[in-house]
Write a structure and sequence with these properties.
Blueprint lengths: L1 E2 L8 H4 L3 H11 L7 E3 L6 H13 L4 E4 L16 E4 L6 H8 L13 E4 L7 H19 L15 H13 L2 H57 L10 E3 L2 E3 L2 H6 L1
Parallel strand pairs: 1-3, 1-4, 2-3, 4-5
Antiparallel strand pairs: 6-7
Helix pairs in contact: 5-6, 6-7
């Protein structure tokens, strides 16, 4: 699968160039039959798309080219997918997730797949990676469930760190690569420190609760001992109840008095 949101066939008339057509021509030039290359934009109706996805699963179509919108959610063609290519970058992290969800999907017969992302040095690609990095951090913070967070600064990990690294690569500045690596190390160490502090707090709570339980149980033992010393058996004929200056041995009469 090859994803490109900017170089679709539709822009060829206005821009004079289509990345889709250029890729197909290059593939055909290397010996790939044109019938094994498909543009998803050419398949408008649902029935036609389903037939196309069936051909991809069967191996009849080996290269499928489309955009985030047309080839994202709902595309079930993962059986033989081996590689996915990001020719450009969409605006939202969720679109990247949907793209890669086409190949990182249950039912793919390949245990290992390849995902490629391309960036042009000195282009807007670095800014696009930066935008996705920022959005991914906000999303991670919102989904963390931490009600103590009131400002979203250095938050999130995983996908956000990947975006930061990609941004550094696209910028062509080796200092940014070093910065991205150091930030990843700092984030990892801060997570370890936070986990250690949480463990220490939990242990202190457990000690405090245990000491309180010991004190309470010790006091209860003495109180129960006093209760046992004052206990008067009342089962069966041992029942007796003083009301005023009289003692009743019948429960019904004692209750009435």
């Amino acid at each position: 699968m090859i994803f490109s949101d900017l170089g679709t066939i539709n822009v060829e008339t206005t821009r004079g160039f289509s990345a889709y057509r250029w890729i197909r021509d290059e593939l055909v030039g290397t010996g790939v039959p044109a019938a094994e290359i498909a543009f998803l934009q050419d398949f408008k109706k649902s029935e036609a798309k389903q037939r196309l996805f069936g051909d991809v699963r069967a191996g009849k179509v080996r290269f499928l080219i489309g955009s985030s919108d047309t080839m994202g959610a709902g595309v079930n063609a993962q059986l033989r997918l081996k590689a996915l290519h990001h020719l450009d970058l969409p605006w939202l992290p969720s679109q990247i997730e949907q793209r890669e969800g086409r190949i990182l999907r249950q039912g793919n017969q390949h245990d290992v797949v390849d995902i490629f992302a391309y960036a042009t040095e000195g282009s807007m690609d670095a800014q696009m990676w930066k935008n996705n990095e920022r959005k991914a951090r906000f999303i991670a913070a919102a989904l963390s469930g931490d009600t103590s967070v009131r400002r979203l600064d250095d938050l999130g990990e995983g996908q956000a760190n990947q975006f930061a690294t990609a941004k550094a690569i696209a910028s062509g500045d080796p200092r940014l690569m070093q910065k991205a690596g150091l930030e990843a190390d700092i984030a990892r160490l801060e997570r370890l420190r936070s986990a250690h502090q949480d463990d220490q707090f939990a242990i202190r709570r457990q000690l405090r609760d245990a000491e309180r339980d010991i004190e309470y149980s010790t006091r209860r033992i003495a109180e129960i001992g006093q209760d046992l010393a004052r206990l008067v058996p009342t089962t069966g004929e041992a029942f007796g109840m003083r009301v005023g200056d009289r003692i009743f041995t019948e429960r019904k009469i004692a209750a009435a008095r």
